Amino acid sequence: MSRYIVDYRETSDNNKTTLDNNVPVSPQSSPWPEGQLRIVFDGDGVLFSDEAEIVYQRGGLDAFRENEQNKKDIPLPKGPMHMFAMKLQEIQEELGKDNRAILRTFLVTARDHVVTKRLFRTLTEWKLKIDEKHFVGGLDKTPFLCAIDPAIFFDDSIEHIERARPYVPTAYVIYGAKNNAAAAPQILPNVAQPTEEVD
Asked: Regarding beta strands 103-109 and 132-135, do their DSSP bridges make them parallel or antiparallel, or are they unpaired?
């Protein structure tokens, strides 16, 4: 489970976040190693296919959870960013243990802890290691992303992209049922510069 909800609620007045107003604040000092490259992926429709998203759209949350429970031992199909994530892992392996911290990968997904078994089964099947996984349960991803301070954030939801892009670099993955995208996926990086500080 992610630690960032607690971190942001316990922020001091000098580095205050207005989470209640959905406006995150850049931290005064970064907890991350200098020069580290951090890449954040969404789950369904990005790392994974939109199979589970289609179930959610058609039947709602209960149908989604039932489907994921019934298929907990069946890996999810590959999504449009699967190969890129695998290539990043190859780079990490080539860097070796001493230099692995140069590149760090994250999963920030709207899934909650109730529907994680199939996700972990999928990553195990792919032999894909994601360094940190955060299940936000439908909360706004922006405070989590500000805490991570990524080089890029990939998501197939335009709502998540629009909320996050004033603060972090984003890439809109146009793919699957959520975007009515029948053709090959497109990836549109944001053109707005991320905000350095939020007053």
From this structure: parallel
CA-only gyration radius of the chain, Å: 17
pLDDT lower than 70: segments of the chain: 1-30, 181-188, 190-199
What 8-state DSSP symbol labels residue 87?
A: H
The residue behind tokens 């053109």 is: 191
131 is an active site residue: no
pTM for the whole structure: 0.77
Q: Where are the domains of the chain?
A: 34-189
Task: Choose among 173, 188, 189, 186: nearest CA to 53.
Answer: 173
Q: What is the pLDDT of residue 198?
A: 39
pLDDT attached to residue 27: 47
Q: What pLDDT shows up at residue 32?
A: 83
Q: 């004033």: which residue's tokens?
A: 166
In the set 7, 13, 20, 42, the catalytic residue is: 42
Residue type at 107? L
On whether the 34-189 domain is CATH 3.40.50.1000, my answer is yes
Among positive and negative, which fits the CA dihedral 84, 139, 37, 124? negative
